[in-house]
Amino acid sequence: MKNYITNKLLLTAMLMISTLFILQSDARAESLFDGSIIDGKIVSENTGVIILKVQNGTTKTIKKDSLIRIVYSNEFRRTTRLSLYDGTLLEGFIVDEDADRYIVRKMLTSKEETTILKNEVEFIERAKIERRNPVSRFGAASAIYMMPVSDELKKYLNPGFGILINYSMNDLFDNNFDGGISLGSIYFPGKDAVAYSIITPLLLNVKYRLIFLKDFSIAPSLSAGYSFNYLYSGEPERSPYMVNGSFYSGEYNRTSKYGFEPFTMAGIEAGWSLSSDWYVSAGVYHTAIIESAGVFHCVSFTAGCGMKI
Q1: Given CB 3.0 to 4.6 Å as the disulfide criterion, which of 81, 86, 252, 283 pairs with 257?
Q2: Residue pair 16/24 in contact by the 8 Å Cβ criterion
Q3: Residues with Cβ < 8 Å from 180, sequence gap 6 or more?
Q4: Other beta carbons within 10 Å of 249
């Protein structure tokens, strides 16, 4: 009788210690019967429910009878290929296993699961879990050549040339998904009633790099912001054009006109990494100056280099 009581006390103590350990552990995921997965940390537990602290800091109360399992690692997120001795090749996610079998889902968030006996498996190939790249910062300078396409621009401006200075944060939103800011200045020699024009854009940029051949990338790119646009005629007698015919909105005097207009660039940029700290790039873009009178279009070409900062 005494041994029975002692064993009972030991078993109770072990269960209490195990429960305490579980409550302090990170529950990497809760698998529910509907197939969904909830990441978080178990903060408390009682007979019927588990209290889970999720990634945004809030808590969720989950009924135990709605759970399939609790998983304490991230390995189940790996895509896995299982080759069976009968020649069958299966691809999916091993969400659970014991000494004799694997539990496999073809889709991670599906409740449909397949049981595979381990003695039927010839070999397993597990994909690497993609990890989030740290944000890296680059500064770049590019020459820009801008050709007017709209007739209104072509009539009074020759192709322009200038420079763009760019500060970018690579992998800002996700792996290969970058964001940044650009400041530039483009000089256009004028013709007819215009001596010259200067455009100074300030833009926010986003691009997504598609990696090829390890060091080479193609990136769809979009930039949007405002530009300060200045137009100079040089001679007072041309003021009728400056007052009535200028394609820029804003203020004017007898010989010049200026204003702020929305400015966008959308195109493709090619980049080549010379090292982890240096790269060269070139791009082609559709460029638009947007004002109340209409949208004026250009085609822009850039080429430059950048370095890690």
Answers
A1: 252
A2: no
A3: 166, 167, 168, 169, 204, 205
A4: 15
- Global pTM reads 0.57
Q: What is the CATH number of the domain that holds 39?
A: 2.30.30.100
Same domain, 92 and 196: no
- Residues of the chain with pLDDT > 90: what percent? 31
Residue 104 bridge partners (DSSP): 94, 114
Q: Tell me whether residue 297 is in a domain.
A: yes
Q: Give the pairing type, strands 37-38 and 41-45.
A: unpaired
How high does pLDDT run on average in the chain? 80
Q: What is the pLDDT of residues 5-44, one digit of tens each?
A: 445 444 444 444 444 443 344 444 444 455 677 777 787 8
Secondary structure, 3-state, the chain:
CHHHHHHHHHHHHHHHHHHHHHHCCCCCEEEECCCCEECCEEEEECCCEEEEECCCCCEEEEEHHHEEEEECCCHHHCCEEEEECCCCEEEEEEEEECCCEEEEECCCCCCCCEEEEHHHEEEEEECCCCCCCCCEEEEEEEEEEEEECCHHHHHHECCEEEEEEEEEEEEEEECCEEEEEEEEEEEEEECCCCCEEEEEEEEEEEEECEEECCCEEEEEEEEEEEEEEEEECCCHHHHHHHHHHCCCCCEECCCEEEEEEEEEEEEEEEEEECCCCEEEEEEEEEEEEEECCEEEEEEEEEEEEEEEC
What pLDDT shows up at residue 4? 45
d(CA 197, CA 114): 69
Q: In terms of residue numbers, what domain contains 106?
A: 75-126
Are 140 and 255 members of one domain?
A: yes
